[in-house]
Amino acid sequence: MTDAATRKSDGSAGDADYGRIGQGYANYRQPDPRIAAFILDALGEARTVLNVGAGPGSYEPVDRDVTAVEPSESMRAQRPPHLPRAIDGTAEALPFADDSFDASMTTFSVHQWSDLKAGLAEMRRVTRGPVLVLGADPAVLDRFWLNDYAPEVIAVEAGRYPPIDAIAQALGGAVEVLHVPIPLDCRDGFNEAYYGRPERLLEKDARKACSGWSFVSPEVVERFERTLAADLASGAWHRRHGALRAQATYDGPLRLIIARP
Known about the structure:
Elements (H helix, E strand, L loop, with lengths): L17 H4 L3 H4 L4 H11 L4 E5 L12 E5 L3 H5 L25 E5 L8 H10 L5 E6 L14 H10 L3 H8 L2 E6 L2 E2 L20 H5 L9 H17 L1 H6 L7 E2 L3 E7 L1
Parallel strand pairs: 1-2, 1-3, 3-4
Antiparallel strand pairs: 4-8, 5-8, 6-7
């Protein structure tokens, strides 16, 4: 269970310290409307929605009654004024009665939780209808070209993201897993969002918005910058991966898990 003793200085409750890396996060991690459409469709007729690990509010529907929970003070401070203020709390101990919400959701968050089963059980406990989890399938992360340049980042992410089956089993009920295609001009700057725009990952702030980079050494980052920059300059990246620059979508690791009671 997450408690005050395990939280970072800004309240971050997971393994990443968003007090250190979270400034400017919302500048790079904007909700992409094509990804958001999958979430809105899965929410169905739900009017009251809980968003757990809400961060700066990406993918929160604006046409529903949303309650947001976020432990990081840095993330709560980046929420735009048109979204509700987030409650300071963690997935593992949600301060709500049973069946309080029509639906609940969490996006790019479960890999941060200290206790996956407890967090998902809490979401199920307080939700009458569907529970939505947007995240990555760790089994396919190494298919991305980043593995050629920084396999350590891929290995870190694969070790942090829980297997899709583990999430499905913890939620129970009728579970549907959707592959969510990543658009070429994706506004949400997770690593794979730059599948056809590799230059963007040479930006330090773009990498800071992907927490996996905070777990590798400066030597790994320096090697990544040097080798990718060299391959872009020489055309080596283009010879291996250039078709991605014109590929409208990428079927990468992005998954939407929908669990209905």
